[in-house]
Amino acid sequence: MQYSQVDAEARAVGRKFDLVVILSTFLALIAGFHVHQMLVAGDWSFWVDWKDRNWWPIVAPIMEITFPAAVQAVLWTKFRMPIGATFCCLGLLFGEWMNRYINFNGWTHYPLNMVFPETFIPQAVVLDIVLMLTGNWVVTALVGGELWGWLFYPTNWVMIAPFHLPVEYQGSLMSLADVINYMYVRTSTPEYLRIVETGTMRSFAGGVTGVAAFFSAFVSVCMYVPWWLMGTYFFGSTKFFKTYEATPVEARQH
Amino acid sequence: MAQTQTTATAVARPPITAFSWKSAGIAIGALIVFDVLINVYERLYAFSKGLDYTSADYESYWMGMLFAELVLEAVTAAGLWGWLWMTRDRALDRLSPAEELKRYWALGLFVLTYTYAAYAGASYFTEQDGTWHQTVIRDTDFTPSHVIEFYQSYPIYIIFGVGSLVYAMTRLPQFAKAFSLPYVILVGSPAMIFPNVGLNEFGHTRWFMEELFVAPLHWGFVTFGWGALAILGTWLQICPRVLSLINHVYYGKPIQSPAEVMKDPQSSVDPAACAACAA
Question: Taking the domain A2-238, which CATH number applies?
Answer without folding.
Answer: 1.20.1450.10
